[in-house]
Structure formats: structure tokens, C-alpha cells
Design a protein that fits this description.
- It is built from two helices and eleven strands; from the N terminus they run E-E-E-H-E-E-E-E-E-E-E-E-H.
- The protein is mostly beta strands.
- Strands 6-7-8-9-4-3-10-11 form an eight-stranded mixed β-sheet.
- A hairpin with a 5-residue loop joins strand 7 and strand 8.
Length: 142
């Protein structure tokens, strides 16, 4: 399943080959501040994505183990990416709203659930990981 997407202004575009339609939701405080709420993100291996407009991408090392990127023209958040060595190193975690077609996507996991605002609740059952379990998943020490 190949998908295309772009930022708000179209200065950054991308194509993802063989998209895995399962996505997760991150409730960490950094994602809340970056996305304005929870981040609904797809895990995209680096070797399956091609970007156009790379000159418009800005990056910020938001923690010791990850960076965030955005379009320098319109400010759209583009990805969260683990930069530390480990099982998720290099994988892009991209907001589903950037995709041109979001059909057939399924939320399968919520992470940092212990920092989720009380007013946020999604329907359905899925894997729920608190901070300690999330850090273990990403191979990061607290």
C-alpha cells in the first residue's frame, strides 16, 4: 500500500512505499505541545520513504534520543524520529493528517498513557503503555 502526503503548503511532499496501516497515539507532554494534542503517528521505516522539498525541512533535537521536524515555510509538523541507537532508530513517526488518503488506517497502540489528559479518550481496545513501558519499547533508559 503506497501513500503520498504533504505539509500544509505543499513545500514538503513525500511518498511512502508499502505503508503499514497500523498507527499509534502518543500522549507524552512533548507531543502534546508539538501537535497541540496527542500525536496520531505512523511508524515509517527510513528506507520506505522519499521526500521532495528537503530544503524546506527544519529539525530540532527535542530530547537526548529523538528529534522533531517541520516545514520551514508553513510550520507543519513532519515527524518525530528516534536518533539514539536501538530498535526504532531512524524510524519516522509521522502524523497521519499529512497523508493524502487516510482510509483503512487502524490505531493499535497508545503510548505515554499516564500523561494523557483526562479529557481525552478514544473508543475501542488497543495496547496501552505507560511511560516506563514506552521507554522500554524504544530502548531508552529513564
Amino acid at each position: 500500500m503506497d501513500r503520498t502526503g504533504q505539509c500544509l503548503c505543499g513545500a514538503v511532499r513525500f511518498t511512502i512505499r508499502d505503508l503499514n496501516p497500523q498507527f499509534g497515539t502518543c500522549h507524552c507532554k512533548m507531543c502534546q505541545r508539538w501537535a497541540g494534542s496527542a500525536l496520531l503517528g505512523l511508524a515509517v521505516p527510513a528506507d520506505t520513504i522519499r521526500f521532495e522539498g528537503k530544503e524546506n525541512i527544519n529539525r530540532y533535537q527535542s530530547s537526548d534520543w529523538a528529534e522533531r521536524a517541520w516545514c520551514g515555510k508553513c510550520g507543519s509538523g513532519l515527524w518525530y524520529q528516534v536518533t539514539a541507537e536501538g530498535p526504532h532508530s531512524g524510524t519516522y513517526h509521522m502524523p497521519i493528517g499529512l497523508l493524502d488518503d487516510t482510509s483503512d488506517l487502524t490505531m493499535t497502540r497508545e503510548i505515554f498513557t499516564d500523561t494523557k489528559p483526562d479529557c481525552v479518550a478514544f473508543e475501542g481496545e488497543r495496547e496501552q503503555l505507560d511511560t516506563a513501558a514506552t521507554l522500554a519499547l524504544f530502548g531508552v533508559a529513564e
